[in-house]
Amino acid sequence: MRRALAIAAVAFLPLASIPTAAQAAAEPDDRQQAFTAAAAEFKVPESVLLGVSYLESRWDAHAGQPSNNAGFGPMHLTDAASFTASNHHGESEEDARGDESRPLAAPAETPAPAEIPASLRTIEKAAELTGESREKLRADDAANIRGGAALLADYQKSLGAPLSDDPAEWYGAVAKYSGAEESQAAKVFADEVYSTIKEGADRVTDDGGRVVLKPVPGLEAVEKWLEKLGLRPPRRDGVECPPTISCEWIPAAYAQLPNDDYGHYDLADRPVSQKVDYIIIHDMEGYWAPSVKLNQDPKWPGSWHYSVRSSDGHIAQQIKTKDVGWQAGNWYINAKSIGIEHEGFLAEGSTWYTEAMYRSSAKLVRYLALRHGVPLDRAHILGHDNVPGTLPTTVKGMHEDPGPFWDWAHYFELIGAPLHQFGGPRSGSIMIKPDFATNKPYFYGCDRKNPENACPPLPASTVWLRTEPRADAPLIKDIGKHPTGDSLYSVYDHSARATTGQRFAVADRQGDWTAIWYLGQKAWFHNPASAPTAVPSMGLVVTPKPGLATVPVYGRAYPEKEAYPAGIPYQAVTPLQYTFSAGEKYTLAGPAATEYYRAVTFEPEPHTVVKGKTKYLEIQFGHRVMFVKADDVRVTFSG
Question: Could you tell me which residue ranges the N-acetylmuramoyl-L-alanine amidase domain spans (predicted)?
C-alpha cells in the first residue's frame, strides 16, 4: 500500500560499473570462494558467514539492486542513508476502505521523514572496517561478502567473545547482525541461522554458480552472548502469532474523531459474525518503523493487522484478527480478510525481499490460515494486486503490490503448501509457475529519476500475456485499467500479466505458446516444453449457461435488495465493465459468501452483517479474482 510516501520513499541507485580486469583477477572467481576467503581473512567460521548470508539473501546478489529495506548483496549490507526522500508516483492511490457509501479522505498532511536507524545503515561500518567504498560494497559480490564478515567479527569482539573456530561461539554476533532491538527477534533470527547451519544448504545462485553450506551436525549454540546485547523484551501479551516467530503487540489507534467520524478500522466479532476467507499480502511502500507509527494514527486513512520487518522477520500485530482493517481497497474483501504489510517497496527503491521476512511471514500465514480455515491457495492467499475493484469506477485505481518480484512459489513452499502440478500435459487448465530464478521478463519503471528506463534483468514470478502466439505481438488489453489505452510494460501495471500460483482455463495451444481465457480474451504466453512457465492443474471451471450470450462479473458478492433489513441502505449489486461469453472458461476458486458488513459507527453495537440468498462463485478472471452469480454459469470439470 502507498501509505508511507515521503516517510521512506527512496531514489533508486544506479548500478556500479563493471570491475576492471585487474580487480577481477585479484578477487575470487566465484561466490563460494568469496565466502571462503572472507571467512579466513576475518577469522569467522565459514559456516556462520554462509548461514547468515542465506537467511538474508539465499546467497544471491540481485544485480546490485537494493532489497525492501535498502540492503545490498549476499550479506544484505544496508545503505538507506544514500537514498534521498521523495514521493512515489508509480502506483495509484486507492481508498483503502473500499466502501463508496463512506469514502475515506486523503490525509491532511504527510508525516515528516523519520530518522534512519542504525540497522538500515550497516554499510557505513562495513566500509570503515574493510576500507572499501560504499559503492563497491553495494555492487561487488566479493567486497560485499568481505563487509559482512568484517561486521560479524566486529560484533563478536564487541561482545567480548572469542574469534573462535567453533561456530557455536558466534550466536551473539549472529543475533546482533539481525539489527533487532527486541531480544526475541534477535533470538529467532539467530535460531534460523543455526538451523540452516545444522541442516546445510545447496543452491545455484543468481550468478549461475553453486554455493554449498555443508551440514554441521550436533551444533549447540552458546546463547550466553545474547544477554550481552541488552535488547528489550517484546510486548507479546495477547498476540495472535505462532510461538516460533518474533511477534509483539503494538496496537493501531482506534478513536472517535470530529463530525461523527472515527478511525481507523472497524470493530467486529470475526469469525462469529463473518468467516475470514482471505489473507492479503501487501508491501508498505516504506520502512517498518514509520509504517508501524502510521498505523497508530487514527486519522491516517488505512490500517492493517500485521507489519513484518525485513532484516529479521520481526512482526508487530496491530489489529486483532476479529476486527476489520481498512487495507485492501474493497470493503467486501476487507470484511472477510486479514491484511499483512511487509517492509519495502514494489519496485522503486527495492527489487527483492529477504529470506528472514519470507520465513516469518510464511509461518504467520500458515498459522492464521489453519486458525480461520483459509484455503492455502492463490485464490485465497492474495496479493493486494489480486483484489478486485468494487465498481467500474474503482478498477483503475486498485493497487499493484507486492509486485512481480515477490517469489510466490518459494513463499508457498515455506508455508508448507507447495504449488504442485496436478494433471497431464494436455490438461484443460494450468497453473502459472515460471522458474523464479531464471524468469527475468522486461519491465520499466524501477528508477524514479528515469522512469522510462528498463529495470535490470531480475527474477520475477509473472509472465506477459499477448494477443497472438509470438514474442512481438501486442500485450492484451484491460478495459478497466486502461479504458482508452494499451497495457504497459511498467512494473506497476499488471494488466497483461499472469502470476505464479494463479490457475486459468486453457483456450488454445500452438507450438511453444499456450493461450488462457483472461478478461474475456484469449491471452497467449510463452510456455515451451523445455522451460515451461506453467504446469497442468486440473479442476473445476465455469462457463456461461446455455442460452446466455454473456455473463457479468462482479467485484464483490453483495446480497440482493430484499435481504436488507429496515434502516440499512441497500448496496447496489453493480457489475464491473468486464463480461465473458459463451465458449470461454474460467477456473473456479469456490463459493463466495453473500454478505455485506454494515459498520459505520464508532461503537460496535449497531454493526450488522446482512446475508443474502443469491449464490456467488469466485473465479480467476484476470490478474485479480472476481465473482459471478451461480445462476449465470455452469460448473464443469476440466481434466
Answer: 265-403
Mark whether 395 and 301 lie in a shared domain. Answer: yes
Domain carrying residue 598: 544-637
Q: Which of 211, 229, 247 is the last residue of a domain?
A: 229
Whether residues 208 and 238 share a domain: the answer is: no
Strand, helix or coil for residue 77: strand
Cβ-defined contacts of 196-205 (< 8 Å, 24+) = 196/51, 196/54, 196/55, 197/47, 197/48, 197/50, 197/51, 197/167, 201/50, 201/54, 203/58, 203/59, 204/437, 205/31, 205/58, 205/59, 205/60, 205/61, 205/74
Shared-domain flag, residues 36 and 73: yes
Out of 229, 252, 279, pick the residue that ends a domain.
229
- Asked if 285 contacts 401 with a C-beta cutoff of 8 angstroms, the reply is yes
User: What are 498's strand-pairing partners?
Assistant: 463
pLDDT in tens, 360-386: 999 999 999 999 999 999 999 999 999
Domain count, the chain: 3
- 464-522 pLDDT, tens digit per residue, is 999 999 999 999 999 999 999 999 999 999 999 999 999 999 999 999 999 999 999 99
CA 30 vs. chain centroid, Å, equals 30
> Domain check: are 224 and 316 in the same one?
no
Cα(517)–Cα(528) distance, rounded to whole angstroms? 19
- Beta carbons within 8 Å of 385's beta carbon, 6+ residues apart: 398, 399, 400, 401, 402, 403, 494, 499, 623, 624
Q: Is 50 helix (H, G, I), strand (E, B) or coil?
A: helix
β-strand partners of 282: 341
The reply to whether 246 and 362 lie within a common domain is: yes
Tell whether 276 and 339 lie within a shared domain. yes
* Global confidence as pTM: 0.92
Round to whole Å and give the CA distance between 203 and 42.
Answer: 25
